């Protein structure tokens, strides 16, 4: 693994452990995890004052962490109104889903070429931990670990720009799921992740890509990314009543 990749992944791991990393690394990692675990809902206001009190750091530190998250497009910085967790629109959600397919395909192909036995073993432990969390009802941690699976896969690919892009896409996907997931909230990535690990271990690039596309299909099928028909226009919402009221008047005029 090259030094740049090690810095990208290592800094976040150390920040989560609380053992090292700068103060803004720690704040960034905790907020990033909260978004992955869907504990921070889209649209949540991120008060610098409140976060400073929670983490025991200055507002300057908070601003640096929020700026990093804004760069990854999971936080929106609003001039004079503060920061909020991003709320992807329907069109943004569709674009993110499309972009992720392209990135995941490239990552999967590179992972098949570059994965080491040690990385594969680490991935298997991650998937087993994910399943254990889900079995005991810890859905939030399970979702985060599922996201980390895809980050570790990007690490396997040994391509720093793809890893950085993947961090943004994975966290944005978590926001999309929180906002647009419909129906059954079952979490079925365990078997799919296991199958993908096996294909990578066997160096079967075609199978690995096929499994990844199927996995992303599964994620997309649980989302309602069609126009929901909701509207803030009262005339549009109640147009059928207006039409019904006007029709009798029109008939009365014709018969009169």
From TrEMBL:
The keyword Disulfide bond does not apply. Transmembrane segments: none annotated. InterPro entries: GntR_C, TF_FadR/GntR_C, Tscrpt_reg_HTH_GntR, WH-like_DNA-bd_sf, WH_DNA-bd_sf. It comes from the Bacteria. SUPFAM superfamilies: GntR ligand-binding domain-like, Winged helix' DNA-binding domain. PROSITE patterns: HTH_GNTR. CDD domains: WHTH_GntR (cd07377). Signal peptide: none annotated. Residues 1-21 are annotated as: Disordered. Residues 21-88 form the HTH gntR-type domain. Keywords: DNA-binding, Transcription, Transcription regulation. This is GntR family transcriptional regulator. The lineage of its organism: Bacteria, Pseudomonadati, Pseudomonadota, Gammaproteobacteria, Oceanospirillales.
């Amino acid at each position: 693994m090259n030094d740049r990749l090690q810095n990208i992944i290592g800094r976040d791991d150390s920040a989560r452990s609380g053992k090292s990393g700068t103060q803004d690394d720690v704040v960034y990692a905790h907020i990033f995890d909260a978004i992955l675990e869907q504990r921070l809902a889209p649209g949540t206001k991120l008060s610098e004052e409140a976060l400073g009190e929670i983490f025991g750091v200055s507002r300057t530190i908070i601003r640096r962490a929020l700026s990093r998250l804004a760069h990854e497009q999971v936080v929106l910085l609003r001039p004079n109104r503060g920061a909020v967790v991003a709320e992807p629109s329907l069109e943004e959600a569709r674009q993110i889903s499309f972009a992720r397919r392209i990135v995941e395909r490239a990552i999967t192909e590179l992972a098949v070429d570059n994965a080491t036995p040690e990385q594969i073993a680490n991935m298997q432990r991650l998937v087993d931990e994910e399943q254990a969390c889900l079995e005991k009802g810890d859905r939030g941690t399970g979702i985060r670990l599922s996201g980390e699976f895809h980050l570790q896969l990007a690490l396997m690919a040994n391509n720093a720009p793809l890893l950085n892009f993947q961090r943004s896409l994975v966290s944005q996907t978590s926001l999309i799921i929180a906002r647009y997931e419909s129906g059954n909230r079952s979490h079925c990535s365990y078997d799919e992740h296991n199958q993908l690990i096996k294909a990578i271990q066997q160096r079967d690039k075609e199978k690995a890509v096929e499994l990844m596309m199927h996995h992303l299909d599964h994620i997309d099928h649980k989302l309602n990314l069609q126009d929901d028909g909701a509207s803030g226009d009262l005339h549009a919402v109640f147009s059928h009543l207006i039409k019904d009221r006007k029709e009798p008047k029109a008939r009365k005029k014709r018969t009169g």
